[in-house]
Structures are given as structure tokens and as C-alpha cells.
Known about the structure:
There is one protein chain. This protein is α+β, with helices and mostly antiparallel strands. The protein has 8 helices and 8 strands. It has a 4-stranded mixed sheet with strand order 1-7-6-4. Strands 2-3 form a two-stranded antiparallel ribbon. The protein is globular and about 50 Å long. It starts with a helix and ends with a helix. Mean pLDDT is 79; it is low at 163-201.
Amino acid sequence: SSVIQECYVQNTAREYAKLYAAEAEPLEGFGEVPEIIPIFLIHRPANNIPYATVEEELVGEFVKYSVKDGKQVNFLRRDSEAGQKCCTFQHWVYEKTNGNLLVTDLQGVGMKLTDVGIATLAKGYKGFKGNCSFSFIEQFKALHQCNEYCEMLGLKSLRTTHQKQRKVTSTKSKNLPNSSTVKKMVPKKAREPRDFISSEH
């Protein structure tokens, strides 16, 4: 049933979030790490809906930190600490699973997340198949902008292949590729909403 799948997905994502926290929390200056709350399946044989889920109620403003659909621009991803750490979490999982798995739909209150999804490549990953289209993985690769938390964790930029090609064509001025790389690494410079929208097409 989809309820069972929902539990399985969220609790799988939660395991990744725990591993992420174990790596990120000890880093100096990283601070609080997003947490995916557990979701429990209860069986009610006498009820006409035999399965239900139970989870902690999140009180406060519910925010989406990542998007299912890349056409919907979500500035909270870049402009809030929780949003940036969620993007870094996505990048970390993507790197850990060699690009086979991505946690999507990161949403919740502050650093507590729920209703997440997982996208995997068609064949799945280690016997696990996600509940979101693998096109989200492509979208993530195209749209992700590394931030300071990605740097703290030593994650590799997803744009390295493009930079290598550019270096080959612009051998005359060696400084250019570096200055453009620096701009990409500093999220504050990319605050113009228009930049972000045009970079999607």
C-alpha cells in the first residue's frame, strides 16, 4: 500500500539524515543539522482503512526547502540556514550513493522535516526503489548551487565537468575559469532572482 511505501521512504531518508548528522555535527561552525522525524505505521484491522501513519506533530510555519518540480523556484532553499543545509544534505546523499539516490521534497518546520520523497535511478539503489521520478536527480544536478555547508563537508561541485571543458577552450586567459568558479561558490553573489530563473532554461 502507498501508506507502507510512505513509511518506508521516510524512514529510509531518516537513516541517511542520521548519517549526515553524524558527519556534519562535529564540524566546527556547522551547527544544527536537519532531522527527518520518524513515521510509524499502525495496523487497525477493524477499521475500513486498515493502515495509518503516526508521527510527531510539527508546530510552526511549515516550509518546503526543496522542490519536486524544478520549474517552481524556491528561494527559501538558498536564503535560510535550514534551506541551505537541506540542499547540502541532498548533495551529500547524492555523492554518498554515487548519484543513484536523492532525497527530495524536503519540507517541515525549522530543522524538523517530514513528508520527504526519494528519487532513485530506474534500477533502484541497493534493492531500494524511490517513489519519485529519477528526472529529479537530473534536475538536482542542473540546479544545485553549492553553499558553505557543502564546502565544510568537502563535497565535490556538480559542475566540475563543465569547468574542465571551459579550461580547455580558454587557455589564453587562465584567470577566467577561476574567477567564475569563485563566484559560483559564494551563494550571496547569486541572490538576484532573475539569474536563478534564467539559469534554469
